[in-house]
Amino acid sequence: MFDFCLHVLTLACLYGLMALALNLQAGYAGLLNFGHIAFVGVGAYAVGIGRLAGWPLPLSMLAGVACAMLLGVAVARLGRNLASDYWGIATLAVAEIVRIVVLNQSGMAGGAQGISALPGPLDALPETAQPLAFAVLGLFAVALAAWLSARLAASRFGRALRLLREQPALASCLGYDLGRLKRSATLASAAVAALAGSLLAGYTHFVSPDYLLAAQTFLVWSMLMIGGAGRVAGVLLGTVLVQGVYSFVPLARDLLGLGSETVGALRLGLIGAILLLCLLWRSAGLLPERLRTLP
């Protein structure tokens, strides 16, 4: 049971990184990125392809961050002449293109079978100590990302992103380059998401096209909407709630004798019910963002 709790904690930390990365775009800047999981997948596949090429793990992780940021530049350029809703659809299409590309690259990306036996950042430790050590690493990573995200929110750049979200015309009149703000938010989000993807691949020692399914993006979106987009504490609370439901519901299979399909439907149904309740009674999330108002 202790190992299972460590596993849940580690996954919650990794998904917390993904949610904090999405919050940089959706929470602060109001950008509707429905292809966020593409950045995570790029980071994960960089570890896998780097292993096949014989690269050391740190170099593979840096390459994943760099490739994700290049993809972020391309995604940001798509948004220059598109309204926010159309840009969101375009990002979803980009993520699906990335998934199809790796699905059909049987040589370099392993195709539908993915890439297994990946190196982890803590492989030098004894096998019995790795779960606890990875949980500590995950906690450190998400705590650092949360601290940096909070500092960014309180900075001039963070205030500019909020102005872009609330009053883009006013932001433009004040001299802000809207395209540059969107690009900067997307690049920062891509870097954090790629780091989360590389850690996820190192933790599971495996990567496959399933990492790039659109359902993964909407799972992270659920974390933001339930907890409260734009606020670090809200994002982390939403991550804990959603990941808790996602991880502990399968225990009902043994306790209640349910089938695997029923458990999967129950898990998604509970997450959907929580999201629906929040949209009806707490539309801004359980811990909504605190905005200053003029007297």
Explain how this protein is built:
By secondary structure, the protein is an all-alpha fold. It has one domain. Helix content is 72%, strand content 1%. It contains 12 helices and 2 strands, in the order ααααβααααβαααα. It has helices at residues 2-29, 37-53, 57-78, 84-103, 130-154, 156-166, 168-173, 178-204, 214-227, 232-248, 252-255, 260-281, and strands at residues 115-116, 206-207. The protein has a two-stranded antiparallel sheet with strand order 1-2. The longest helix is centred in the first third of the chain and has 28 residues, at 2-29. It starts with a helix and ends in a 14-residue tail after the last helix. The mean pLDDT is 88.
